[in-house]
């Protein structure tokens, strides 16, 4: 580990190092006493690793293949990473869809294994078209990268568009299989990758969206998230050590008191803390969403020095890879393993996989302030660099077209340093703008659509892809979220932003459980008994230091009945007043 040294390749202002993050070096951890062996009382047979390395890839052992789920069988039948690491995508891309459909092996390639390359076949609604998910650590991207992605989706006409995701990431739509090798090459040329971004892999590392420019930040998260991403993907060459996990796995690094990164819903969260005068991180583990269960991350009772974050990430991933269940997909996320072993039992397995089998206990010196009012990053805000500001733009439900991406790239170049930041609320920040240029930027036509000062109800609006493109979604989400919110906004005035999240199905990609008000797609019956699109309504989600997952408020509400329900909730729970009353008082 001590040989690792990676630098984040972020743009900086001409002739200036003021926005460039520091170089990170990994080093061996300090010596500490490991816990006594056998203290956890776990059956030793249960602790036998279920995978083994064969020909450079990790595969499930024969003795553990009984009762496994269909996705595990697909991985056993053919190693997904061979499509990338052994260039199998070249041959697959030359096959017609008719040829592909004739064989189960190639059909599974396009429907399942290509997700290891970030490609998701839209079989149900857009047969032959793919969504491509990138890796964009900390949500930082460049104008050149944005223009390249715009050029890719533009050729697909009405099928092509891009979405900002709830993990600070890009997803582009409309991709066809014959174009994939060329697109992958283009991504590499602009410093991007889509590798290991889907299925049973580590997802995009999330960090503070205003890292390095935040006047109140605890630590610049960019070097850490970049280090994690490069390590997990072996510098975008592919890292089979972490590509056969039981399920997906999320990681974040906290850099602000605002907890923009949502640590409570990540499998591993690095929480800033000092110990004996050294900077480092306490660790949370196990946070996740799924159709059957949602769980908040819990303390691992562990601390790692800030210059050595990789060994514990490796150890946690290996413990999960080696021991995680591979049966019912609804019970294969890492928290299920933690529940089975107990937190101390899980910690002991992590320690076994650490260098010298040592891991320090958590520090009591947390750096995140518990009583902190979460700041709004939309609008104009001063940076820590004197004379510069950043501007947060609201991207309605995260959907962007090619021409708009080109315009964002132009604005980043003309007014900033050629950099854009994506946020987990599906918005975009332009950093590093000289204060003298702010007035001109705010007059740009694009900001009429991507407003820095949207209506209060629009500020916190998030929506997943919905059934326009996603085969798993039960209802349409993006257009409906905008329509419902606009109608509600016409009826009531709120005193503060209210975060409303929409998700098309119980997989909850829209993260409805963290919203003030959440809507999860379902089918239900209206007052006439007709089956219609509806939503289960969630209430009470909180983010920040007082985080809490929301609960079901009302099930099976027809979508046509949501506006009056939301209006009543806003009046009774969030201090809203009806517009006619507000006007009368004026």
How would you describe what is shown here?
- Pathway: Nitrogen metabolism; nitrate reduction (assimilation).
- One of its GO terms (molecular function) is metal ion binding.
- Keywords: 4Fe-4S, Heme, Iron, Iron-sulfur, Metal-binding, Nitrate assimilation, Oxidoreductase.
- This is Ferredoxin--nitrite reductase, chloroplastic.
- InterPro entries: NIR_SIR_4Fe-4S, NiRdtase/SiRdtase_haem-b_fer, Nit/Sulf_reduc_fer-like_dom_sf, NO2/SO3_Rdtase_4Fe4S_dom, NO2/SO3_Rdtase_4Fe4S_sf, NO2/SO3_Rdtase_FeS/sirohaem_BS.
- The chain has 586 residues and is an alpha+beta fold.
- 27% of the residues lie in helices and 22% in strands.
- It has 18 helices and 28 strands.
- The strands form 8 sheets. The chain has a 5-stranded antiparallel beta sheet. Strands 7-20-21-18-17 form a 5-stranded antiparallel beta sheet. Strands 10, 11, 12, 15 and 16 form a 5-stranded mixed beta sheet that branches.
- A hairpin with a 5-residue loop joins strand 8 and strand 9.
- Helix 10 crosses helix 11 and helix 16 crosses helix 17.
- The protein is globular.
- The protein starts with a strand and ends with a helix.
- The N terminus is likely disordered.
